[in-house]
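In response to the reviewer comment on reproducibility (Comment 2.3), we provide here a single inverse folding case reported in full, input and output, so that an independent group could reproduce the run without further information from us. The structure tokens appear first.
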């Protein structure tokens, strides 16, 4: 029983081992074959993601620049694409920008995997060990079977027959219209050339339209509000259409009336303009003087020179002397009253002639010889009869000293009580002074003692 049981157990184990190994075995190519390139312990392994591996098998060669540098290893499926493991010799530098492509080595159906940079691009860097080339960097060339199948579709009632129909129809369309089509091609060539010359303008126009569109997009709310209000404005215009029509009709009537008026008065208007020609010419001749007169009229009576020197912005410079003295008031404001004195002499102002020669001190007057015709006082200003007495009755004037009184001393002068002021000497009721005009350099007496002995 023990021996029989042992035989049965060995048989069952053998069946299990054979069954398990049979399920995992995928043919001879699934095992590393002797002589395969890049299968050593120091080989570098990479992974390639390919959408379609076609008939690619394990142990297929890996090429770089049409040189075998490795071989294809295990292949499995991940996320609906193939994940291919490749082994490359350790002394081979795979470029970092390499792309993987599955191609056919010969017409017999042998496949290979190529690792090359993109067409027209130089190799860059080095792909690190264990890196993965993604689906975007992998592709599959069409096989011989796919090429022959596509060619059979074209040849057997496919595109060739349709191309023949197209050529036949095009030939019938051009028959007899060669010159028209040639002219059309010439015009198209000129049109395309003009468009090419205006390319910069077209680009600038498109850019301007882009800016306008951007502006409109930025003001979308304003445009929306305007479009919402526009129907109401159109309704108002529609309601006012009769009034607008009437206004336009009246405007037409006015235009017709104005046209008739201009036509009727055209000759008279021309004559009036011809009559105005001498006047306008005269005005043109006196143009400079007229400009000066108008300019002076705006500043009359001061003159532009005074305005330029006096006016300073918001201010005006004014230099004035206000004379409210008695002589001035009697000669001006008080005329016609008891205090008025027409022709009264005025006191000279500072800076005027004889101002420094006016005085109130009677002693400052020079002595003058008495005028002929009678004895006069030695002091000017005394009355002509001062110091004289009447002859007694019966006195004989022929004898010396007969009837004459001895000379008497003049009365003493009153003391000067006021200041010496530059006052003009006055005369009673406009009578002239006894003395003649002062000599040059002599002071002028301005005191209160007049020629009749009285002051004003």
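Designed residues, in position order:
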């Amino acid at each position: 029983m023990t021996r029989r049981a042992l035989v049965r157990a060995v048989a069952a184990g053998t069946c299990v081992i054979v069954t398990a190994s049979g399920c995992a075995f995928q043919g001879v190519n699934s095992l590393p074959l002797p002589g395969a390139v890049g299968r050593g312990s120091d080989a570098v392994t990479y992974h390639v993601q390919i959408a379609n591996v076609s008939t690619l098998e394990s142990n297929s060669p890996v090429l770089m620049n049409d040189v075998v540098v490795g071989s294809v290893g295990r292949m499995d499926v991940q996320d609906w694409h193939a994940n291919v493991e490749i082994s490359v010799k350790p002394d081979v530098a795979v470029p970092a920008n390499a792309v993987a492509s599955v191609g056919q080595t010969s017409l017999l159906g042998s496949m290979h995997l190529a690792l090359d940079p993109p067409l027209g691009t130089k190799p860059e860097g080095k792909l690190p060990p264990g890196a993965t080339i993604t689906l975007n960097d992998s592709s599959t060339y069409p096989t011989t079977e796919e090429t022959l199948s596509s060619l059979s579709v074209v040849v057997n009632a496919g595109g060739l027959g349709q191309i023949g129909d197209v050529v036949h129809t095009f030939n019938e369309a051009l028959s007899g219209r060669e010159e028209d089509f040639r002219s059309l091609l010439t015009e198209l060539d000129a049109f395309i050339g003009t468009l090419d010359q205006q390319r910069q303008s077209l680009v600038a126009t498109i850019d301007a339209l882009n800016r306008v569109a951007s502006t409109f997009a930025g003001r979308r709310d304003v445009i929306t509000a305007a479009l919402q209000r526009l129907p109401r404005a159109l309704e108002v215009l529609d309601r006012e259409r009769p009034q607008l029509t009437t206004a336009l009709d009246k405007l037409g009537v006015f235009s017709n009336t104005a046209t008739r008026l201009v036509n009727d008065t055209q000759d008279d208007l021309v004559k009036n303009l011809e009559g105005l020609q001498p006047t306008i010419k005269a005005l043109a001749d006196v143009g400079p003087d007229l400009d000066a007169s108008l300019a002076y009229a705006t500043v009359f009576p001061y003159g532009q020179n005074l305005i330029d020197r006096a006016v300073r912005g918001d201010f005006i410079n004014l230099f004035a002397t206000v004379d409210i003295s008695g002589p001035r008031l009697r000669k001006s404001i008080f005329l016609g009253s008891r205090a008025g004195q027409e022709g009264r002499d005025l006191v000279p102002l500072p800076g005027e002639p004889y101002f420094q020669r006016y005085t109130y001190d009677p002693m400052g007057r020079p002595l003058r010889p008495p005028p002929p015709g009678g004895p006069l006082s030695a002091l000017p200003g005394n009355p002509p009869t001062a110091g004289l007495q009447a002859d007694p009755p019966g006195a004989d004037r022929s004898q010396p000293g007969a009837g004459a009184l001895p000379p008497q001393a003049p009365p003493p002068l009153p003391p000067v009580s006021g200041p010496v002021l530059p006052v003009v000497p006055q005369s009673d009721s406009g009578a002239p002074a006894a003395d003649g005009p002062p000599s040059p350099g002599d002071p002028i007496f301005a005191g209160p003692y007049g020629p009749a002995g009285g002051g004003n």
